[in-house]
Amino acid sequence: MKMAVTSILGFSALAVGMTNCQTLQNVSADAHKTAQTIFQQPIFQIEAGSIKARNEEPTLTRNIRLKDVALSTEVETHFGAFAGGGAPSYNEIALEKNLLYFQRSLTEKGFSPALAHLYFASGNAWEQTIRYLDENDEEQFKAAEIPNLDGGATLMNLYSWFDALAHSPKSCPSFFYFTGHGAYNPDNEDNNWLILWNEAFVSVKEFVDLLEPLPNDQPFVTMMAQCYSGSFTNLIYEEGDPEKPVALQTRCGFFATVASRPSVGCTPAVNEADYKDYSSSFFAGLTGRDRVGNAVPTADYNTDGTVSYAEAHAFAKVDEETTDWPISTVEAWLQRQISEAEVADILATPMDELSAIARPEQQYVITLLAEKIGLELTASYAENLKQVSIPDTNTIEEAYHVRLQMELTNIGAEQKLRQQNEPDQIAVLDKILRCEASTWK
Q1: DSSP string, 50-106
Q2: pLDDT of residue 125
Q3: Is residue 5 a part of any domain in this protein?
Q4: H-type alpha helices, 273-395
Q5: Full-prediction pTM beyond 0.85?
Q6: Looking at the domain assignment, is residue 35 inside a domain?
Q7: Which of 267, 298, 327 lies at the terminal end of a domain, its last residue?
Q8: β-bridge partners, 350
Q9: Residues 322 and 360 grouped into a single domain
Q10: Domain range spanning residue 381?
Q11: Which regions in the chain score pLDDT beneath 70?
């Protein structure tokens, strides 16, 4: 039996209600306290009408009026970013600041934010839609202050940007950043939602329908930081369905956490120095500078002179001091190729043996996470567990353990797949790896 993407956990997972997705959840008080057993799925609900009706609605039946979006022919990467909550009550100031940090990251890497397409919340500069806490910790609302904003994070703008991408006179790679809220689909966690302004829910399948018209030779890369974002790893498949083949078009992505869990980072607090989330760590790794302007250690782990998306993702796994369990498309794909028994065998293998066959960014993750939680590389993860205390659930220490388990599993799963020597599977693996090893250009 092949495992579900989130089932490699060595620790129980809590059904947590009061997180940064609290406005979207409806979890009982008992569920806050009760740990699920190993390999069980935590359950999250959303208050958004009939989930079943949404799930059964055919994708792309919306009659969306498109607007003209002019993509620059002066760029080598088309950048698009959508940010903000679905309504003022959960449109936190951190989401505005994430978009501003994305702009600074572009500038740091030599790109012009004016040539990117940036969309936030309602898009109206005069509306006080951003929730924040003042110096007295009182809730307040303010208007957006984002230069070079192209409009609101609306369905019309999402459809229009992807339509422009499909018909761009210059076919080049694209990078899509989403920082906002997500919702869990209890009927099918492979088809969760991201939430745009006016509480427009966009499922994995609908998102993939927007990708379908893109040329096969036009790579698409995304980074998403919303709750339950790991569901969008399924964008690599035809129709967003992991039971179907991987699409011919090159697609890959990086996500704050797995499909079954909320993420952190959507805060009304204003001090960016206190922000600890996947966006902060990913862009710090990619650019070499954190969100308050300080230099960070290089993430160029293979010393080729550039930092790839995969290296930025590795940096975030170690740097991010949160309960998130980051995941990428190739990692999710590999985890679907392996059984729970095979995972147990991998975790019983000395960690230094797995590190020896790993890529440099994977070696970094193993070494640093093992050091953080006091494990010996010469022993297996399973053997190490006999010597350390099991961390409490939903803690940063638990997250370090889970991230390490996932990294070891990814390495072992790739080795197993290559040893099987199935050309079609290896071709898929290498295609996704190449996509994830690319970078802004």
Answers
A1: -HHHHHHSPTT---PPP------SS-SSEEEEEEE-SSGGG-BHHHHHHHHHHHHHH
A2: 81
A3: no
A4: 278-287, 309-319, 329-335, 340-347, 351-356, 360-373, 381-385
A5: yes
A6: no
A7: 327
A8: 380
A9: no
A10: 339-434
A11: 1-61
